[in-house]
Amino acid sequence: MEARPAGKSQRKRLQRQLEFYLSESNLRQDKFLQQAMDEQGFVPVRVLLSFNKLKSLKATERMILDEADKSSSIRVDRAHSCIAPKAVPVTGQDREADTRTIYIDSFSATDDHDSLRRAFAKFGKVNLVSLPRFPQSKKFKGFGFVEFSEQSAADKAAVTSSGPDLYGIRVMSKTRWLEMKEQLKLRLSRADSHPDADVAAGSASDKAENANAPENSKAEDSVSTNAATGKKKKRRRKPETGGHIHFGDDEDGEEGPTGCDSDDNQEATKKQKT
Length: 274
Description:
Elements: H1 8-21, H2 24-27, H3 31-36, E1 43-44, H4 45-48, H5 52-56, H6 61-70, E2 74-76, E3 82-85, H7 95-98, E4 101-105, H8 113-120, E5 126-130, E6 143-148, H9 151-158, E7 170-173, H10 174-193, H11 204-212, E8 221-225, E9 232-236, E10 254-255, H12 264-273
Antiparallel strand pairs: 1-3, 2-3, 4-6, 4-7, 5-6, 5-10, 8-9
Helix pairs in contact: 1-6
């Protein structure tokens, strides 16, 4: 029985996925694809065929080459065996991209890349949603990053932290998160050298949280009056955010525009080794 030809919707999803794989946002931190590329930026189609997301789209070599040829951002080699971005990005840390990126935490355990992409799309075009995982268990670490196309979108999202539109998700700019991470490293290195130096000042992580918690997430005193006694009673308002800020690895768990499988590269690496 012959396979049914791919429909327009399936092919469009395939094209978007290929464009994501070869986008600047993904290639900047995708070490597997960096290693698979030649000097001109070409990646063999057979490598892409090993990715779980493309398998779920029932992609074939012919389909990949056809959709790459139609794309405005991808080129096909003369031998029709490899594809590459038309503009090969410089790999490594991109400080300009950091200004377009926000740190997020306190989202629901049921949230995934697609739901978070939809939640933040109201602020502007989302290039990338990254949810780092633990290497062994593959479970999410409880925080993530959202990269926008424009810095203005990231700025708008950051000032909306923990608001009703984001259902309590805490947000801060990635540049601020990186600054806090470096401050914490410095304080910890000083503490290792002088164990008693920071005892009176309190823990570095507590200071980082208090200095950067959004105004509407800090615990506040509210006053209520007891009708029987007329006495005023103070109550603590429960913080809306989920506690401490995470400072783990920020490079794992990138996802594509349609929620690509974050194990794609790990699966491909295993096959390459065998």
